[in-house]
Design a protein that fits this description.
The structure is a single chain. This protein is mostly helical. The chain has three domains: about 30 residues, no CATH class; about 150 residues, no CATH class; about 50 residues, no CATH class. The chain has a two-stranded antiparallel ribbon with strand order 1-2. A hairpin with a 6-residue loop joins strand 1 and strand 2. It starts with 6 loop residues before the first helix and ends with a helix.
């Protein structure tokens, strides 16, 4: 008794089959990598995923109804991450012919991606410019405002297509200019805070060390007559509580001052001059 396959399986196997005829290959083995990976629709699926990711970054500056202003962060994420994800998927689809992630695969898919990008964005620019002319808003034409979003999209797609194959979503997000800038700002702030903490700790330690040294010096000075004499002649007079210029102290010091400088020194340090 013969049992036939469905028309789809017959087409895949390339034979009009029933169980009386040997099967040349299984349906899965007959599929190419392109078909296994989902074909062209799978590339657009990657763009849709990127659009959903970008939705988390929508802010108040985003205005999809104004084609003359930048899309903001949401546009950056959608184009950078989306073009990178689409490029990776295209390399997967071409896996029967080139190795995903290889130099050849990167260059080929980058070229295909940029060709498609220029085609789409120039068409968008023409459409926006045509609308401006229709509205009589020639300022948008002469100022180049009609090319704002297309030019931005070209730049971000180019950046996304340059991201190496196989990077994770989080790694791709690190290539988004605004997110990268904010991340750098955060790192710089953390670094500055850390440096401020170190400086404050060093200043506190230095102040404590100085206070300790000053206290020890004062205690030594009060307990030891003549302590603190310096090469410049400064000294402490334990008898009078005054600092002497010669470094001598007490009665002995006055005798020695007379020996060194006579009556002038005696009158000077005795308080008469």
């Amino acid at each position: 008794m013969a049992t036939t396959f469905t028309p789809n399986i017959e087409n895949v196997l390339g034979q009009n089959n029933n169980f009386m005829t040997p099967i040349k290959s299984s349906p899965y083995q007959a599929l190419s990598t392109w078909e296994k990976q989902g074909g062209l629709p799978s590339i657009y699926d990657e763009y849709r995923k990127a659009t959903n990711i970008a939705g988390d970054y929508a802010d108040k500056t985003y205005n999809p109804t104004n084609p003359y202003k930048p899309e903001g962060l949401i546009g950056e994420v959608r184009h950078v991450v989306g073009s990178s994800m689409a490029k990776d998927q295209l390399q997967n689809l071409l896996g029967d012919y080139i190795k995903p992630g290889s130099s050849l695969a990167e260059k080929l898919t980058y070229g295909i991606g940029m060709t498609k990008t220029y085609g789409e964005e120039l068409a968008d620019a023409f459409k926006i410019g045509k609308g401006a002319i229709k509205e009589g808003d020639w300022d948008k034409i002469f100022s180049g405002a009609f090319f704002t979003q297309p030019a931005e999209d070209i730049a971000f797609n180019k950046l996304g297509l340059s991201i190496p194959y196989g990077t994770s979503i989080n790694q791709k997000l690190n290539y988004v200019p605004t997110l990268k800038f904010k991340q750098q700002q955060l790192m710089n702030k953390k670094k500055q805070n850390f440096q401020n903490i170190i400086k404050a700790a060093e200043a506190k330690a230095a102040a404590e060390a100085k206070a300790k040294a000053d206290a020890a010096h004062k205690a030594k000075q009060q307990s030891t007559p003549g302590y603190g004499s310096a090469p410049g002649g400064q000294g402490f007079d334990a008898g009078t509580g005054r600092t002497t210029k010669s470094g001598y102290s007490g009665k002995t010091g006055r005798k020695e001052m007379m020996a060194d400088g006579g009556l002038i020194n005696f009158y000077r340090y005795g308080g008469f001059i």
